[in-house]
Amino acid sequence: MLANQEQFTKVTKNSIDSQLKAMHELANQALNSVTELVELNIATAKQSLEQTSTAAAQLLAAKDAQALIDATSAQAQPGAENALAYARHMAAIMTKAQADFTNATETRIGQTTRQINQLIDEMAKSAPAGSENVITLLKTGVANTNAAIEQMVKGSKQALATMESGFEEITTQLSAAKPSRAKK
């Protein structure tokens, strides 16, 4: 019995160490994604401020109503293009973060499952006669838990694919709807 307790303790310690490492990796990934979003927002704010200053100067320099209309119209397309570029960049950051989280989760689930199955197999070797049903129940429980987790990961991937598809459709529609600049 002591051997099983030592094995259980060792497997438990390894599992906890593995989970702590996984949490550390996920926290770093989350922090990197947040950093990228903050950098994107700062760059976008700077660009927006510069464009607003330029646009204001152009509007103030307008000599008549037609020049004012032309200056206003000229600002619409770059503004829409910038918003679209921002949305693309933000979606790329989010997509990468989601993929990183999904990969890390799948890796950790696989490792944890192997550890649990090894523990169950070790327990089964020294289990008393008649405990086969308990061992089978444990293995079934682990398999069912893994199936549920795989469904959640699959759903997450499908949601991400749907989001990407929707974003591509919006991008296509916005690109097709761009107003053409009138040339003089």
What is the string of helix and strand elements? HHH
The structural class is mainly alpha
Mean pLDDT: 81
Largest sheet: none
Spatial gap, N to C terminus:
91 Å
* Oligomer description: single chain
User: What coarse outline follows from CA principal-axis ratios?
Assistant: elongated
Determine Rg (CA atoms, Å): 28 Å
> Fraction of residues in helices?
over 70%
- Runs in which pLDDT lies below 50 for 5 or more consecutive residues are none
Alpha plus pi helix count: 3
Overall number of strands: 0
Strand content: under 5%
Can you describe what's shown?
This protein starts with a helix and ends in an 8-residue tail after the last helix. It is elongated. It has 184 residues and is mainly α. The model has no long low-confidence stretch (mean pLDDT 81). The chain has a domain at 2-28 and 77-176. It has helices at residues 2-60, 65-126, 132-176. The longest helix has 62 residues, at 65-126.
Give me a quick take on this structure:
The protein has 184 residues and is mostly helical.
Give the SSE map:
Layout lengths: L1 H59 L4 H62 L5 H45 L8
Helix pairs in contact: 1-2, 2-3
Key words describing this protein structure:
0% strand, 3 helices, 184 residues, elongated, mainly alpha
